[in-house]
Write a structure and sequence with these properties.
Elements (H helix, E strand, L loop, with lengths): L3 E8 L6 H5 L2 H8 L19 H4 L5 E4 L11 H9 L3 E4 L4 H10 L3 E3 L12 E5 L4 E4 L4 E4 L1 E2 L8 H6 L2 H19 L1
Parallel strand pairs: 1-2, 2-3, 3-4
Antiparallel strand pairs: 1-5, 4-8, 5-6, 6-7
Length: 183
């Protein structure tokens, strides 16, 4: 996992529901019925910013207010963020189900009450996802947020590996090497 990341802020408001504002439930159903996510990715954040998916660049950040991604814990929104190259989500607070998906896909999440008030749409940010230091290069201000899964957290190795699937693959590879040595 890269420690320090740079990118532009894409700012959103408070109380964004996972399957209403982030990735509409109708598109979740399409994906679950076999439509590849690549064909639906342009719908991520569409209800709150129709230009998000076409304008975001690899390394950019999602910045949101309170209760980002609350509601049903559908994974497609976080999957789309990863596919688009979002470096991390920075929010006042994030729903528990959404945080579970961040861990599963290895997408860093940082929280601090009121942080969204200190970052504007388009601000250039430099973010240390391990210690939560956020340098707003546009304003010169240094901010602090708490990583959801910081070093020392029992689930940090999963985040560090890039998510649960990568973590399991890494563990299986290590186990296979040990078994080969024993033979």
């Amino acid at each position: 996992m890269e420690k320090v990341m740079k990118g532009k802020a894409w700012k959103f408001g408070h109380d964004l529901i996972n399957d209403t504002h982030i990735f509409a439930f109708s598109h979740v159903l399409e994906h679950n019925s076999g439509v590849p996510l690549e064909k639906l990715i342009h719908h991520v954040m569409e209800p709150v910013n129709p230009e998000f998916a076409s304008g975001v660049r690899k390394g950019d950040f999602v910045v949101a207010g309170r209760n980002f991604g609350y509601g049903k814990a559908h994974r497609q929104g976080v999957m789309c963020f990863k596919m688009l190259g979002i470096s991390a989500v920075i929010a006042d607070s994030i729903g528990r189900g959404m945080l579970k998906n961040h861990l599963y896909f290895g997408l860093p999440a940082l929280c601090s009450e009121g942080i969204s008030d200190k970052i504007n749409q388009g601000d250039e940010l430099e973010v240390n996802v391990l210690n939560g230091e956020i340098k707003n290069l546009s304003t010169g201000e240094t901010l602090r947020a708490t990583p959801a899964f910081p070093p020392g957290h029992p689930l940090f190795p999963i985040m560090e590996a890039g998510g649960e699937v990568s973590y399991v693959k890494m563990k299986l590879a290590t186990l296979n090497k040990l078994q080969k040595r024993r033979r």
